[in-house]
DNA sequence: ACTGCCGGGCC
DNA sequence: GGCCCGGCAGT
């Protein structure tokens, strides 16, 4: 499997020729978009969980647009259509980018593809020149007998994708969304989706997202009394696991993008011909744009490493590093039956505000426990301290802590 | 430069 | 544990 890195300029032009034979997904965001997303308070993701569904719907809608172009390749979209794409893409990006957990966008083929699906999958779209969605056409059809769309309804999973509903999205800020389709289509019924707890030393696997969330909530987050309440934090600590019963690893996952200019966390789309799913890794920065589709046998785990993260990124064999515009991110993958897990970053990180520069990298890590990085140092006390109040000359009046150059105990902030 | 205080050493 | 201080980092 290979991924290709595109520069911003590539996206503006027809880059279809540059597409590798394999699937890939490329998502581009404007720098402003990323900044916007970055400056949002992490906690906000917890405030709009109910918007998750909306995010998913938007994705589907977006996908629909894509598919609509499939059969009409070189035809340019109408301006109205383009506008809609813009809006939709912006909304999707925004909502997804704020989601710490990157789940692949569920898409219902029947609805989103307008019946234009062909057995082989997507047909190259000419819309790439418009900076929108673009799919690469699979070169072969792995399963002619199953002319179903790559994305099946039964694979739709209501992943929670916290979004920010009240954040108006400026169409003008919408950037490019480029998708690519995995070439080979996978057979249905060969995958089983499970949810694995990423909590350190846990690894509990449950069959439902709700179950794993509840598990995390009650067991790890200690929210016994509010087991029914979810603020989305538990999303950070579990990942989707695809258990493949098929030995053939023809599925590919796509990867996506990143803001060429900012190096945002690339959305991570993976595609499953039959079971599109979303595998999302949340990041507190909300920069992650989780547009993922998974190949039947692959599950990607995305991890974003911020400058403050203490743990260095882990690269595993079969990974690729992108360096769009100097900003890099890497993606790792493996063939089935290996499972990728997106490692979420705790939303509770102590992160400096206004992180304009997003030094981010996306990594896929195998079975990595959730990593949580804390601020190295607690915020400096702002109030008066013994030293200031009494002065150096009255050092004997200082509290003990101050005398010992420890955190002041008398004038606690 | 000043200040708060962490991390660590010494007793 | 008490005491002290080098040094980092925020202001």
Attribute tags:
disordered N terminus, transcription, 413 residues, DNA-binding, three-stranded antiparallel beta sheet, two-stranded antiparallel ribbon, 9 helices, alpha+beta, single chain, globular
Account of the 3D structure:
There is one protein chain. This protein is α+β, with helices and mostly antiparallel strands. It is 20% helix and 9% strand. The protein has 9 helices and 11 strands. The protein has helices at residues 8-12, 31-39, 44-47, 52-70, 79-97, 109-112, 209-220, 386-390, 400-403, and strands spanning 26-27, 101-102, 177-178, 191-197, 205-206, 238-244, 280-281, 303-305, 319-322, 329-332, 361-363. The strands form 5 sheets. A 3-stranded antiparallel beta sheet has the order 5-4-6, with helices on one face. Strands 1-3 form a two-stranded antiparallel ribbon. A two-stranded antiparallel ribbon has the order 2-7. Strand 4 (191-197) and strand 5 (205-206) form a beta hairpin. Helix 4 packs antiparallel against helix 5 (79-97). The longest helix has 19 residues, at 52-70. This is C2H2-type domain-containing protein.
Number of strands: 11
Main sheet: strand order: 5-4-6
- How many separate domains make up the residues? 2
Structural class: alpha+beta
Secondary structure: helix percent? 10-25%
Strand content: 5-15%
InterPro entries: CR1/CR2-DNA-binding_regulator (IPR052253), Znf_C2H2_type (IPR013087)
GO biological process, one term: regulation of transcription by RNA polymerase II
Domain C2H2-type: 195-225
Main location: nucleus
């Amino acid at each position: 499997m290979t991924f290709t890195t595109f520069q911003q300029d590539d996206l503006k032009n027809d880059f279809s020729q540059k597409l590798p034979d394999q699937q890939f997904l490329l998502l581009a965001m404007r720098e402003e978009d990323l900044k916007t997303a970055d400056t949002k308070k992490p906690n906000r993701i917890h405030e709009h969980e109910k918007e998750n569904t909306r995010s998913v719907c938007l994705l589907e809608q977006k996908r629909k647009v894509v598919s609509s172009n499939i059969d009409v390749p070189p035809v340019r979209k109408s301006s109205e259509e383009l506008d809609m794409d813009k809006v939709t893409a912006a909304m999707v990006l925004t909502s997804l980018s704020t989601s710490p957990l990157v789940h692949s966008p569920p898409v219902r083929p029947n609805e989103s593809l307008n019946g234009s699906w062909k057995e082989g999958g997507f047909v190259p779209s000419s819309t790439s020149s418009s900076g929108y969605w673009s799919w690469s056409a699979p070169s072969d059809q792995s399963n002619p007998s199953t002319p179903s769309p790559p994305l099946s309804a039964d694979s739709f999973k209501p992943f929670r994708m916290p979004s920010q509903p009240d954040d108006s999205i400026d169409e003008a800020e919408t950037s490019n969304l480029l998708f690519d389709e995995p070439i080979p289509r996978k057979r249905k019924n060969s995958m089983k989706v499970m949810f694995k707890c990423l909590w350190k030393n846990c690894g509990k696997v449950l069959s439902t997202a709700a179950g794993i969330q509840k598990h995390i909530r009650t067991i790890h987050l200690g929210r016994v009394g509010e087991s029914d309440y979810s603020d989305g934090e538990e999303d950070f600590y579990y990942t989707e696991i695809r258990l493949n019963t098929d030995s053939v690893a023809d599925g590919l996952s796509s990867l996506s993008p990143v803001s060429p200019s900012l190096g945002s966390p690339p959305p991570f789309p993976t595609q499953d011909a039959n079971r599109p799913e979303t595998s999302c890794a949340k990041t507190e920065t909300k920069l992650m744009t989780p547009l993922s589709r998974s190949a039947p046998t692959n599950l990607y785990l995305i991890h974003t490493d911020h400058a403050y993260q203490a743990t260095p990124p882990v690269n595993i064999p079969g990974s690729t590093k992108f360096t769009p515009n100097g900003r890099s991110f890497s993606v790792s993958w493996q063939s089935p039956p290996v499972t990728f897990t997106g490692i979420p970053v705790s939303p509770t990180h102590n992160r400096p505000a206004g992180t304009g520069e997003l030094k981010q990298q996306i990594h896929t890590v195998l079975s990595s426990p959730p990593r949580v990085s804390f601020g190295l140092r607690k915020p400096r006390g702002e109030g008066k301290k013994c030293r200031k109040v009494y002065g150096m000359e009255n050092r004997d009046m200082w509290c003990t802590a101050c005398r010992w150059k420890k955190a002041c105990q008398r004038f606690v902030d």
